[in-house]
Amino acid sequence: MSFTLFPDTRLALARDSLAGLSVGDALGSQFFVPGRHPGDLTAGKLPPPPWQWTDDTEMACSVVAALADAGRIDRDALAAAFAERCEPYRGYGPGAVTILRLIRTGTPWPVAAASAFDGQGSCGNGAAMRVGPLGAWFADSTARAAAQARASAEVTHAHPEGVAGAVAVAVAASLAARARLDGHRPAPERLLAGVAAALDPASEVHRGVRRAADLLGRPPREAVEVLGNGSRVTAQDTVAFTCWVAAVHLDDYPAAIRACVEAGGDVDTTAAIAGSVVAAHTGVGTPGGVPTDWLAAREPLPDWST
Ligand SMILES: [Mg+2]
């Protein structure tokens, strides 16, 4: 079934997803500060503000700005925006810093992206961490969400798994936002089946999402053991777990973030991804949505952000 989605609605959905992404990123990264314990969050004790956001949020803001500007991803423009706005102290990995420096100094993005990791291209979780709001923007079409996610990933991630990770997260956010418009919550197995259907069956990310569906109803500890928690910072060991968290907690943003924090690993990124998908469904300040006091504790988004 097709329907009309006006630009203002797309932007509102993308902004809600970005709020969930940036709060998850900023709160998640607090648990790398010595002396902070996941148990504090479980007990309802929040770290003192402000919570600084990291590379996940910086890049996601560029994705949303690109869509607000043109309604679609122009790969050349997005690559230039990523490169110009990169503040390396925001926690970018060394591979990302190198690619973005090459682009900033005039290397075409296809060359820069392909040169990473001895010519294999990056399969890092960086294309997945920034793409949730793009999926929410394309709430009317998982096919467009997937195609545009691919375009947004390719400028830095030439490895097929890095791209697959972005496609998975964008499709999850598209389905989550669509369900919000339709006024229902999809069953976890339906959401994961929708994500798996958009992926190349030969990819590890696809296998992970299928495994995530088999782990519904199992304790989070078991899901982490099988799916990973991002500690290798690859798409393969990040995306399936975050999809599992989002599917299980689609109507409860704080619970999704707590699950990511308790899982350990690349917490700012797992919380950013799961948070972007869940917030596309719940919104901000709603029952189960991004709590307004969490949003207020997050460092303001960059001035150039739309
Ligand atoms: Mg980060």
From TrEMBL:
Record-listed Mg(2+) binding positions: 54-56, 266, 268-269
Residues in coiled coil: none
Alphabetical keyword list: Hydrolase, Magnesium, Metal-binding
Keyword Disulfide bond attributed: no
Needed co-factor(s): Mg(2+)
Keyword Magnesium on entry: yes
GO molecular function, one term: metal ion binding
InterPro entries, A to Z: ADP-ribosylglycohydrolase, Ribosyl_crysJ1, Ribosyl_crysJ1_sf
Superkingdom of this protein's organism: Bacteria
Cofactor binding, note field: Binds 2 magnesium ions per subunit.
Protein name listed in UniProt: ADP-ribosylglycohydrolase
Biological source species: Micromonospora citrea
